[in-house]
Design brief:
Number of strands: 7
Shape: globular
Strand content: 15-25%
Strand order of the largest sheet: 2-4-1-5-3-6-7
Radius of gyration: 16 Å
Structural class: alpha+beta
Largest sheet: 7 strands, mixed
């Protein structure tokens, strides 16, 4: 009876993730395109082939009793956030510049002219946690939490870049 679901996001909650996004997707893209296997590319491929689910982090977050909604990012931020928004009957504003990126994805995307923020918002299988709660949640736990947006009354996701609305399109993985 203590499990957190997707339906507890509240207007005004901050949206957090527990770590860098897009690494698994960049690793898969590296495999599929056959780019040179530099150390950064090898690390992204490792993160794709051997993701690290954030079980301990989820248990610590649950223990705070401050989390509204939480799930892992298996289908990508855009898709999985959509699940939370629908279950909670709310919307979200996401700041693209706030999405945490690893040094490896930044390096590889620069070199190959891939879009790191698109991978971070769309690619799946990172298995970082996506959660909502009051802003002070970040100080209540001894794990890194990255604020990436806010829960709103309006339905859907509004994407911002540098605080300004953008026509950014992110889909995430669809099963069918």
């Amino acid at each position: 009876g203590k499990a957190l679901g997707r339906g507890g996001a509240k207007v005004g909650h901050t949206i957090f993730v527990t770590g860098p996004l897009g690494d698994s997707g960049a690793g898969l893209k590296a495999i599929l395109t056959g780019v040179e296997r530099t150390p950064a590319v090898e690390e992204l491929i490792r993160r794709h082939l051997r993701p690290m689910p954030r079980v301990a982090e989820g248990q610590k977050l649950l223990a705070t009793s401050m989390v509204g909604a939480m799930m892992d990012l298996s289908d990508g931020l855009a898709s999985d956030l959509g699940h939370i928004l629908r279950a909670s009957g709310v919307g979200a504003i996401i700041e693209l510049n706030a999405l945490p990126l690893s040094p490896e994805i930044v390096e590889v995307c620069r070199k190959h002219r891939w879009r790191a923020r698109t991978l971070a918002a769309s690619a799946g299988e990172d298995y970082e946690l996506l959660l909502t709660g009051p802003a002070e949640l970040a100080q209540a736990v001894d794990i890194p939490l990255y604020p990436i947006g806010t829960i709103t009354e309006a339905h859907g996701i509004e994407w911002l870049r540098g605080g300004k609305p953008t026509k950014f399109k992110a889909q995430g993985f669809t099963h069918f």
